[in-house]
Each structure stands twice: as C-alpha cells, then as structure tokens.
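Cont'd.
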Amino acid sequence: MPDTLQTSALEPVLLLTTGGTIDKQYFDAASQYQILDSFVPRLLGLARVMHPFECRELLHKDSLDLTDADRELIAQNVRDSSFTRIVITHGTDTMTQTAKVLLGIEGKTIVLTGALAPARFNETDAPFNVGMAFAAAQLAPPGVYIAMNGTVFRGDRVMKDRARQRFVSRD
Amino acid sequence: MPDTLQTSALEPVLLLTTGGTIDKQYFDAASQYQILDSFVPRLLGLARVMHPFECRELLHKDSLDLTDADRELIAQNVRDSSFTRIVITHGTDTMTQTAKVLLGIEGKTIVLTGALAPARFNETDAPFNVGMAFAAAQLAPPGVYIAMNGTVFRGDRVMKDRARQRFVSRD
Amino acid sequence: MPDTLQTSALEPVLLLTTGGTIDKQYFDAASQYQILDSFVPRLLGLARVMHPFECRELLHKDSLDLTDADRELIAQNVRDSSFTRIVITHGTDTMTQTAKVLLGIEGKTIVLTGALAPARFNETDAPFNVGMAFAAAQLAPPGVYIAMNGTVFRGDRVMKDRARQRFVSRD
Amino acid sequence: MPDTLQTSALEPVLLLTTGGTIDKQYFDAASQYQILDSFVPRLLGLARVMHPFECRELLHKDSLDLTDADRELIAQNVRDSSFTRIVITHGTDTMTQTAKVLLGIEGKTIVLTGALAPARFNETDAPFNVGMAFAAAQLAPPGVYIAMNGTVFRGDRVMKDRARQRFVSRD
C-alpha cells in the first residue's frame, strides 16, 4: 500500500506551473491571449486544498514554444527538489515530449496535466484535471504520468490525438 | 504497479451519486436549496472525460437524512456491481459513516467524495474533488477512501472537523 | 433628452442592497443558505464600472422577512439621500411592496432589481439585471421602476407571477 | 415619458451581434481565440429575459477587421428593420466608428455594447453590459448610444481610451 496512506503525516506535493492553455488569459488590449500569472494557486484555494503543497511558477509559455533549455529547467527543478510527489501543469501540445525528458528521474512520482480550455473559463476541464493529478501524485508509484481526459496514463504510453483533441494510449 | 497502468484496456469507473451539498440547487420559488438531478454527469462532460465510466443516480439526499436502509442500498450497489473501481459522491456530514459501512467489501477500490460548495457555484471545490476521486479509483489498491480537501484519506482514518469545515486524519 | 446625456459630468448612482436571492450564499456547516456580505460591489467590479457610484449594504434579508420598519428604513435612505439616481437590490418576493412604499418620493429615479438565482452561481440572471437597473437609473425620468426578466417595468404596473417565477405587467 | 412605459404592450428589441471580444472562444487546436457562434442568445436565456426580442447574428469579426462594407451591412439592418429599439454587440476597438456610421438614422434607439472579457469567462463584464444596453434600448429617446463601463454614453460623445482600456466621454 502506498506510503502516504499508511503514515499519519501527509507527504507534501510540489506543483510546477509552466504555462499552457490552462493559464491563458484574454487581453482585449492586445486582441489575443497571453500567459501571465498562473491560475493554479487560485484553483487550489477554490478546491479548499489543506494538504501540504508548494506551488512554483517556472514558465509562462505555450508548450509549442518550449525549448530544450526549458525542458531541462523543468527536469532540473524536479531532480534537485526534495519533494517526491510532483505535479506539473503544462500545455497539452508537447506534454508528452516533456514527459519523455523526465523518464529517467528516479524515486519520484511525477504527474503532468493541463487543460483544453483555460482555467478562467466558465466551462473548463482545468480543476478536474488538477484534482486528478494531485491525487495521482499521492497514490502512484514512482514514475512519470499524464492525467488528461479522465485517465491517469503512464507517461511513456500516451499521445495527444490532435485531430480529436484528446489524449489516448499508445503501445 | 496497478493493473490499469499496465494494460492498454482502461478499466471502467462506476460513479454512484447520492446527493449532498455538491448537488444542491437553489430554488427561488421554494426559498431554499434542494437536490434534484445530479450535476456529476455534466461535470464529467465539462472535464472532457473519455475514460469509460457509468454514472448512476442512487439518491438525492442531504447526508444528514441518510438512513441505514440508504447506506445498505449504497453498499448493495457496490457489492453487486461488476465494476471494481467505484466513486461515490455524497454529502460531507456523514461521509465517514457510509465509508464504515463499506469497509467490509473486498476486491474493490471505493472512493467517496463530495463538496463544501455546490457544483453549480462559480467558486466550488466540486470538480477538483471529483477529479481526485476519479484518479484515486484508478490507482489505489482495493479498499475504502475519502478524497476531500486535497488529500486521499484512508476511509477508516479520517473524520470531518465540523468547526473548521474540513476533513482531517485521525488515528 | 435626459440630463445625464447632455452634461459631460456623470451623475453618480447610489446602490442600496437589502438581501434577497441575489445575495444568498450556501453554507455547508448550516446546511442552508444565508445572506451575509452582498455580492453587488464585486459584481460592479467584474463589470468594470467606472461610472461614479456608492454602494451601501442596508439589510441582509430574504424579502419575505422584511418588516414595515425595514421598508421605512429603505425609504428613508432614498428620501434623505442627495443622490437622485438610485438602484435597490432586493428579494423578488416582496419587491412590489417596497416599490409601493417608495412611490410617493419625488425627484428621484428609483430602480429595484434582484435575481432568481444567486449572483454567486455560474448560471444566474444577477449581472444582467443589475446592468439593466444601473442603466435605467441613468435614463428613466423620476419615478419608481422594477427591472426584471429583461423589462424595465413601471413600479406600480408590475407583479410577480409566483407560479411561473417571472415578473409581468398588470394594469 | 418613454412609450414603453405607458403602453401595456412591450416593444420588442432587436439584437444584432457582430462579433468582438464578447464572443471570443478559445480553441486549443488552433492555439488561439476565434469567434464562431455568438454567446448572446445564451446570455439572454441565463438572464431569464421574457421581454420580446429577436437576435440576429450578422458578423463574427474582431472589430479591427470590420470593413466599410461591414459597417454598411450593420446600418442597413438597422435602417431597414421595423424594430425601433436596437442593441448591437460589437468589438470595443472600433465601436465608436460604427456608432458614427449609424448617427444619421432617424426614429430609432440604437445602443452599442460589447465586453472587455469574453462572455464565456468566469469573470466578465458581458452580462452586465448587455443588460445595460437592453434597458437603454427600452428607455432612451431615438439616437445612438454606447453602453460600456457602467455608463450609457451618447454615441457621438465617447471614445475608447486604449491605454486604460475603458470608455470615456469626449466633447
């Protein structure tokens, strides 16, 4: 049985936000979207999360714009951290690429998630997805996972089907 | 490693809704809140859940009004079902009592959740909690759990602290 | 043409909040609704209102609980104020009664409004109604009005059809 | 006193939607915001509008992309219509230009409005603004108006202050 459930102490979760659709805001002045401050801290507040956590805003990018240096920054933050349970919010377009980069890291449960509609929308998958990832971070054994469209996928066994705008298993 | 993550087939999740604050609606004509149709199916739609699931509306009660017969109805639906991964949405006040009744059931992962604000509110913990429970149902080993306030608790190790309106571990 | 539109100075609007469904919140601890702080100031902020206004929380009651003394308090605040353009948010059940009490007041444009769903709900008529009333306060000649269900009614020519949960004209 | 308030018959309002921020939706597949179906009909439904109206989707453009031919199309729909009370939802950037084009039309109350945040957002000025415009259409004498930021401006006496992202009077 996973450690978290046996001990009375709750193991803290680290959330790293990197941008993506989940954090996109609409700025009328610019007639376009932009990613500034992450909505994730606010989302955890609305969810009345009392579980110990830390939230760190690493990047504010559409995932199509992430560079190798960006992915290495994410990996570094995961690797060098004392946290063993980590959630990463990320754009959905290149989530699997970042998952690949993180595969080698040992001893940590790393769950990537994001959203297909901005968290600031009335109708959005954002809170459900972050909830999924936050639970998966507490329960899954060490490894890399992607929580999207209601499934906690193994991070090396999933792809984004762009045509149908959803995540699916692949062998 | 949990089966769900190894097989390419996704194990379906059964959701049983029983009422509670999560499903409360305000009816101006009656000058009060009532529970009619559950918001949970709609919530899963907004969350773009593609994972196979079935949603069954069992009851529409405030959990303070649940009787022993009601809890036995819930237990029966869990026991007699072919599903091994089950989420139950429930009022928070007597969630631990229902968890107790379900403790004896073997071979199933049963996760209770609910919300402290109705799902139809702008500011609510509902989608995050259902997301947590939906992931926990896929990942946790057989047993009873409660997913509230950001933590997946063991169902026999948690209580609702009414004064502070939150769920906490207990020995 | 109404003065407001001729002068370059904008005439300020006074908002008096008295409670009603528009301000109802759900408190899980009490298993029922309560009216505490009004949502109206926040609603005006979300609406990016730059027009000069003042918002005063007079009461926090379901309108079925308003007494003659309460209605006189409202009338007094209207009468004694230097503002000539006034919006009153109010429960819908006895809105016409309060309108009646205000009919005698001269030289002021008084617009009552409320909502059939709490302002804190995702799906609510609240912001639209307050917008209607805020505009009516600027445009209508002195008198009492009720802005509900998309119509700015004369305050002495409207009633609430309880069965159909809507406001309708009456002779 | 405006006709609407004297007769028992409610004069119907025509809404013409032309696009703008109010109707922008975020499409993850395209990594950008687009304007497809207008949210205005749904907004009127949520507002429980029972007042007679007709809603016509003319255009789906950011107002920076409107051409002279587009503005003439809008003017034509206003001019040729039997409705005398008209609301036009429109992007905020060139709302005053369209107002100018409509200035010559006689015998009709024409109110332009829009929003600085999309109507599909949790936090938006959209419903309040449409409510203002819908009331102004019923109350204001024939002429062109702009309802934004809490004020019903005369259409020839207002400009958008782009730096501060708000509408202000001008001489």
